Design the sequence.
């Protein structure tokens, strides 16, 4: 069913009738401006003034009742306060609009919104401090698209029940159908003078994993050691030789879209929610090879979903991002077609990469360093709440689609090391500010098990000796929550932050945390790069909240080397650097032989000197590995 967003509220929070009534009353009360001076017939004027005051008070009372009860001409919008009028259109704000009965005592609190074990239905449970006034004493449930901010005109409820202090509403999910509600948001409403008025904030289904038919457990890796792999080396034995346990692989979505021109790789027609999508068979075969190879090697695989621009599929790009020139762009969950395409492509990937034939992907990262608006998640500059809201909408789609296909997959937000550097400007936002706002918005609309993928690069990124900031701005890296930058040296700032009560997952556990991209340049010497890796590895290994440390990268990249970032284990010509063997043996019984040099380089006699210091600084009570 096609839906169109309709802004069903009047700006400034008043109906036109209310405004006229208030204006007329004030005008009569000030007639002539002479009531303050004694004149002949003074008593008569006093009585007249008293009558005016009574009239004014009556009009004000009518206005208050009008607003309280939502009276209005049939079919006209119902008013809300101006500060709630923020977001009917993408980029103009970020909040769901409650109706005029949004008084705290009348607002419904949604307790849960969960899929049932039958895999077909879901229930929304709520409580009411008091029962809102209504025409019929009933609560109604509406399903809205992720981009809708009010109940569309003519929309019909999907469930209803008798209004009560505690209530439950049940409806069908309709997964894979044209009217699928898998990633819809749901709002409770009452009927007032024939008009449906929202009385709750929206909530999403928070346990889509109940719907998954793939329920294999998350694989356990022998160590945290990971690598951004070189696709050109997948056919070699290098990953086996290195003993890689975790790997990341980039997936630009637009590459997947469109028909194939290679006869050997026919176009794939994927049907999702009743619509057909063309996928490039040759590109899909590349990912089949990559992910199946990594799976065969026993490597836990992470895919990074990237929104690159394609002239053929502009609907994939957020409407506030289409004029930009960046590496990657904001996902489009602000429009119907964009939301449908995003859901379809992600569904195809999540369904395909959960078996040994095509490969198994268990970690999915939605975007790259999304706090860096100008380069990695381009959108015209907007306020932080709006910016995060547009990402949250896309994240909800990805999360529910992925988890409904693979019950134990993990879905992550990606942030860089610029923690609290006062960077919120036309080019970027602080990662801490984005994290706070992301968590708040997710929690408000139904908490889910999202994870954090962090990039704790050194500052500056070309400087490998993160423990020695002499000659650098030492003030940027502190062991406290107000630090400007989080590198691997003070990574405990983030893991401590995630232990706060408000950041815990729905089960009360600390969220999954990946160091999904980090590295050290060899431009200051191969020994500096190798020593930095050893120190960083032991810090990460001794933090129980870090699931993996993924090094960038297997081979130097020309575009990075030109910027002073020679991050690879090998040079572009294939020659192996000192870090190659260090990486290979660091999680084996030969680790001491290959890491001893780093003690001398750093200037310590035993790793406990720095590991114990890290434990004292972040208060995590870690055990040395």
Sequence:
């Amino acid at each position: 069913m096609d839906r169109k967003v309709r802004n069903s509220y009047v700006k400034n929070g008043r109906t036109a009738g209310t405004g006229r009534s208030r204006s007329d009353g004030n005008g009569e009360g000030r007639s002539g401006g002479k009531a303050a001076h004694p004149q002949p017939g003074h008593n008569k004027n006093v009585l007249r003034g008293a009558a005016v005051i009574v009239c004014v008070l009556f009009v004000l009372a009518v206005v208050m009742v009008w607003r309280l009860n939502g009276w209005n001409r049939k079919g006209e919008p119902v008013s809300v306060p101006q500060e709630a009028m923020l977001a009917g259109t993408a980029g103009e704000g970020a909040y769901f609009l409650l109706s005029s009965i949004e008084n705290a005592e009348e607002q419904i609190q949604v307790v849960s919104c969960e899929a049932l074990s039958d895999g077909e239905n879901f229930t929304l449970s709520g409580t009411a401090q008091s029962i809102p006034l209504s025409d019929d004493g009933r609560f109604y449930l509406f399903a809205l698209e992720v981009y809708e901010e009010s109940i569309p005109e003519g929309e019909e409820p999907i469930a209803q029940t008798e209004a009560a202090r505690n209530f439950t509403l049940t409806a069908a999910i309709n997964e894979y159908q044209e009217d699928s509600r898998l990633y819809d948001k749901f709002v409770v409403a009452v009927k007032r003078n024939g008009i449906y008025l929202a009385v709750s904030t929206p909530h999403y289904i928070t346990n889509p994993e109940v719907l998954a038919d793939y329920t294999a457990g998350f694989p356990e890796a022998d160590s945290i050691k990971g690598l951004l792999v070189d696709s050109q080396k997948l056919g070699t034995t290098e990953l086996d030789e290195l003993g890689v346990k975790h790997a990341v692989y980039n997936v630009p979505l637009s590459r997947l879209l469109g028909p194939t021109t290679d006869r050997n790789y026919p176009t794939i027609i994927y049907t999702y929610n009743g619509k057909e999508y063309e996928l490039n068979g040759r590109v899909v075969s590349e990912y089949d090879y990559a992910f199946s190879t990594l799976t065969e090697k026993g490597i836990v695989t992470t895919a990074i979903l990237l929104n690159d621009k394609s002239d053929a599929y502009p609907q994939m790009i957020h409407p506030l991002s289409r004029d930009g020139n960046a590496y990657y762009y904001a996902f489009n969950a602000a429009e119907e077609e964009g939301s449908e395409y995003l859901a379809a492509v992600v569904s195809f990937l999540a369904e395909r990469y959960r078996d040994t034939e095509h490969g198994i992907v268990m970690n999915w990262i939605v975007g790259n360093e999304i706090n860096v608006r100008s380069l990695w998640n381009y959108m015209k500059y907007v306020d932080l709440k709006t910016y995060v809201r547009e990402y949250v909408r896309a994240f909800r789609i990805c999360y529910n689609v992925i988890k409904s296909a693979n019950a134990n997959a993990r879905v992550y937000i990606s942030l860089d090391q610029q923690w609290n550097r006062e960077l919120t400007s036309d080019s970027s936002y602080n990662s801490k500010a984005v994290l706070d706002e992301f968590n708040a918005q997710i929690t408000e609309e139904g908490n889910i098990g999202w994870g954090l993928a962090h990039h704790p690069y050194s500052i500056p990124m070309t400087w490998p000796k993160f423990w020695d900031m002499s000659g650098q701005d030492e003030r940027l890296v502190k062991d406290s929550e107000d630090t400007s930058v989080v590198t691997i040296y003070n990574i405990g700032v983030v893991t401590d932050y995630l232990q706060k009560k408000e950041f815990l997952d729905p089960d009360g556990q600390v969220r999954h945390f990946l160091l999904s991209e980090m590295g050290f340049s060899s431009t200051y010497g191969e020994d500096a790069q190798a020593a930095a890796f050893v120190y960083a590895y032991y810090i990460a290994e001794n933090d129980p909240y870090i699931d993996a440390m993924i090094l960038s990268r297997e081979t130097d990249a020309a575009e990075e080397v030109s910027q002073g970032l020679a991050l690879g284990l090998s040079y572009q010509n294939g020659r192996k650097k000192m870090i190659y063997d260090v990486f290979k043996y660091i999680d084996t019984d030969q680790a001491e032989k290959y890491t001893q040099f780093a003690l001398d380089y750093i200037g310590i006699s035993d790793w406990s000197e720095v590991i114990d210091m890290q434990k004292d600084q972040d208060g995590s009570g870690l055990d040395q590995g």
